[in-house]
Design goal:
The chain is of the alpha+beta class and 298 residues long. It is 27% helix and 14% strand. The protein has a 7-stranded mixed beta sheet with strand order 1-2-3-4-5-7-6, with helices on both faces. Helix 1 runs antiparallel to helix 2.
């Protein structure tokens, strides 16, 4: 992930012999909406603009592997991603449009690293968390922390390599690919389908612009009628306060700013056909829960 940094250590992350999975398991396929599956979101820009939130089959070329939270290659990748994003921001080497994406990336990459290390509490119980990476052209391109809930797979955190956030006006990087975050979420939906979750995927959109993008993909706001306790993981002390507020129909300002959302392939799409305008921005490298975890009581 050079970002024009000139540091050669990124090659460690992009060896031509990626490590194999060492923990967990998950089916690799993905099917279309008509087969009761989700075609996922994109945490970087999709390879092609789509006219409506049709969730196409999984992207070719990505290898999805389950890994241990302490996987050395993943830990190195997260540190390297932060190092390179920090360097680009400090040098002013990226466009004004890319800058907030890299700032978000640094924050979420750091949070993911702390959660996986057990230094910061997550949304669920640490032992129940599954971690997956998407690899392509020898690189770890994205990583995700997921939980299998009774009726959905919950997406806790997703981070994509910062080189995947570069735009046309930024320093080029030969390792840039599109759709790594999408590939991981497709995998989450396949896992949901295989484990009785019906392909449903739940998450919390960090920002309103993320919400708009998820809605374009077919997500809808989670409500009490969706039975949130079956869609998100229980923490060591029970469900978090934000989840309880949603389940009890008493959402507050935090839930308005960072809404809990659900993709349910059995539910008819409610989003009108429309092109995705160039002014709309994807939720960058990340999905995460905003301040929900820090304010929760588990």
């Amino acid at each position: 992930m050079s970002f024009g940094s000139g540091r050669a250590s990124g090659a460690v992350l992009c060896s031509k012999r990626p490590q194999r999975a060492i923990a967990g398991g998950c089916p690799r396929g993905i099917v279309s909406r008509r087969d009761a599956n989700m075609n996922a979101t994109s945490f970087d820009d999709p390879e092609k603009r789509r006219a409506r939130p049709v969730l196409q089959p999984g992207r070719a070329g990505f290898t999805i592997d389950p890994v241990s939270p302490s996987d050395p290659a993943l830990n190195l990748a997260l540190r390297e991603w932060d190092w390179m994003a920090r360097g680009l921001l400090a040098r002013g080497a990226v466009s004004a449009q890319t800058r907030p994406n890299l700032e978000d990336s640094r924050r979420i990459v750091g949070e993911l690293g702390r959660v996986l290390a057990g230094d910061e509490p997550g949304e669920g119980i640490q032992e129940h968390r599954s971690v997956f990476v998407a690899r392509r052209i020898g690189c770890i391109q994205a990583a995700a922390a997921l939980f299998a809930s009774p009726r959905a797979v919950f997406v806790e955190l997703v981070a994509t390599a910062p080189w995947n956030l570069l735009g046309a006006a930024d320093p080029p990087d030969a390792r840039m690919v599109r759709g790594a975050g999408t590939a991981l979420l497709q995998h989450a939906s396949a896992w949901s389908l295989a484990t009785g979750g019906g392909g449903r995927v739940s998450l919390q959109a960090e920002k309103l612009r993320c919400r708009a993008y998820y809605e374009w993909l077919g997500f809808e706001r989670m409500t009490a009628a969706d039975e949130p306790y079956t869609l998100v993981p229980r923490g060591p002390r029970g469900f978090s306060e934000p989840v309880r507020r949603v389940a009890e129909g008493r959402e507050g300002p935090d839930e308005q700013r960072s809404p809990w959302m659900l993709f349910d392939p059995a539910r008819p799409a409610s989003v009108a056909d429309r092109p995705r305008g160039s002014s709309e921005r994807s939720p960058d490298a990340v999905h995460h829960r905003g301040d929900a975890r820090r304010s929760s009581a588990r």
